[in-house]
Fold this sequence. Notes:
The chain is of the alpha+beta class. It folds into three domains: 29-168, no CATH class; 201-265; 322-425, no CATH class. 48% of the residues lie in helices and 12% in strands.
Amino acid sequence: MPKFSDSDGLTWGFTPGERARTRAGVERLKQIRSERAAMDAEEAALLAGLAGIAVDQIGRMPSNSDCAFPLRSMATELGLALKEPPRAMQGRMERASELVAKFPATHAALAGGRITDRHARAVADAGADISEPGARAAYETAVLALAEKTTPYRIKELAKQVADTHQPTAIIDRHEKARADRGAFVEDLPDGMAMLGLIGPAVRIHAAYDRLTGCGRAVRRDRRALIRELDGAEPGPEDPAHVKYLDDRHLAQLRSDIALDLLLTGTPTGHDLDQHITATVEITIPVETLAGLDDGPALLAGYGPIDPDTARRLAGHAPGWERLFLNPDTGALLTVDHYAPSAAQRRFLHARDRSCRVPGCTTRAKHCDIDHTIPYSTGGITNVENLNCVCEGHHMMKHHAPWGFTNLGHGRIRISSPCGFDYTEGPPLLFPALGPPAPF
Ligand SMILES: [Zn+2]
């Protein structure tokens, strides 16, 4: 057995047999993913065809009859056969019809295994409101080029940005109209539970959620400090000696409990919380929009485009902000001008990376560690070309396992897996180059 605990500091690694088995497993999984995408495309075509039969039936009905009936009946037919709720089947038929009829290139990319069903859904959802066929086709071409290169999580946000540039109405007018639809709703759930939903401007909703997350994290920090104080040791949830002190609510439960405390009593009672926890949102505004030279959208991190009026108002109240320089051809972030290097470098990295640099990891950059790709101890410098946002778990993995990270410049990174696969990934594009403008 090879040893990994000598001078390189690694404590484990692959034997040649394990490496070969892992490589074969990865290749087979990629093949399965591609085959599944092709089957998803076939399923969408079938569902759209069956929905088409119902639409033909509606066309033959007398004008005063209930037109919802054929589609509902087809959904029930399929639901019974596939053991799925008819309502869910109807939703899937409608989505499939939309994909096949309005986004044929996306459907073809799914059939070819170049994107997954989640990518296809993100493309169709973001483009659903583009009614003009030429504009929709231009949107689809631009967004598909990005979708084939990135994760479904990232394409969801990028697709909203790309769709925004192909909308015939400016975001400022659409936001004004959409604000009228804000509201609150309750939906009853089984087993004595219910869901409370709020619809409001994205900036306020994300800020509220961020505050709940901050309060939840504070409760967990307080809990760990209390255990340390009582036992004089680092707390571990698996240690039975700590169980009597453990408030084992996870973050999602704490968000719900604290939100209800705030709504029902005005303060988060029952928790000794730091009252200074405030919400933060990260917004990126093009300089032309900030200066009022145009009414293009700004970007809310974790959401996508927001209206320029809201962004300008928030910029006016922000305690500090950074100027970002983008490559005009690719939209990639080039640099930030600043005075205080370390804090500014951190802000640059948060803006450039937006989340952990391991593809698919969704930990927000502000909750990540900042990692020296070439370790400081071996001569790596503290420069953004040698720094990446990496979440705690992936940071530990990088240092304790044979993973290789190489910075290729301009935020591009190559990740080499222990069994020999290389993955090259650019930072997420803030304002991607979107090709020719919409034809109107
Ligand atoms: Zn991560």
